[in-house]
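Need residues for this backbone.
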């Protein structure tokens, strides 16, 4: 350590927010720091293995036609999560205590014991499918390297008029995707603001999310910590 090193200003550590490309979530739309938008849809699934060979060939052909018809990029995300049956077991125990029929009470007790044993022996997984539809406004510079992504460049601020215009165009793109997937027998639902917050909360905090559920949107009042600012005690 040099003699006068202590006189140098300490480098302020960047918060986690500085490394996220998300600027905000507004009106069920994810706004990125570069001004681009994302619309996320939750999609249903088809059990491909239960289809006949002919039905499988038809689905493959329809999916191929859907991909070939795309004029803009999309992202398909498959998310596997362990199912938390704690709340379900708690409700069953509550019903068990209220049940007066001894036969039903015994059956419910056996069912609860079966679920406990099943959970102890195997991880019960839930798989969800998402389609991310992007919108890049004109004159947006797309980052070409990971260094540019984490460089902490200042976010682009959209005016209300710009946001409304871009949102309409994004929804039109999402409708095209939903219609194309609908031909495959899939149903797509756009995630709202609360659902988007919960999705990213679960992605970035998988262990915490399993133990601590997120509060409703109207009860969330988290502060945004900016570089160089300190929270008053």
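Answer:
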């Amino acid at each position: 350590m040099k003699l006068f090193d202590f006189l140098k200003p300490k480098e302020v550590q960047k918060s986690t927010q500085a490394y996220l490309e998300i600027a905000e979530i507004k009106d069920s739309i994810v706004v990125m720091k570069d001004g681009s938008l994302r619309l996320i849809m939750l999609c249903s699934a088809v059990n491909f293995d239960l289809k006949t060979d002919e039905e499988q060939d038809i689905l493959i052909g329809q999916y191929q036609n859907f991909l070939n018809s795309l004029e803009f990029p999309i992202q398909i995300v498959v998310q596997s999560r362990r199912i938390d049956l704690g709340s379900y077991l708690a409700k069953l125990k509550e019903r068990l205590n209220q049940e007066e029929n001894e036969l039903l009470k015994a059956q419910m007790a056996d069912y609860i014991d079966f679920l406990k044993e099943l959970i102890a022996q195997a991880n019960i997984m839930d798989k969800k499918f998402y389609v991310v539809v992007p919108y890049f406004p004109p004159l947006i510079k797309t980052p070409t390297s990971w260094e540019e992504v984490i460089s902490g460049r200042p976010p682009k601020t959209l005016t209300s008029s710009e946001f409304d215009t871009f949102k309409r165009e994004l929804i039109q793109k999402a409708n095209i995707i939903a219609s194309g997937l609908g031909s495959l027998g899939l149903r797509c639902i756009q995630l709202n603001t609360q659902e988007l917050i919960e999705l990213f909360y679960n992605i970035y905090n998988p262990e915490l999310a399993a133990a601590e559920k997120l509060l409703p949107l109207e009860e969330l009042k988290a502060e945004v910590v900016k570089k160089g600012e300190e929270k008053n005690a």
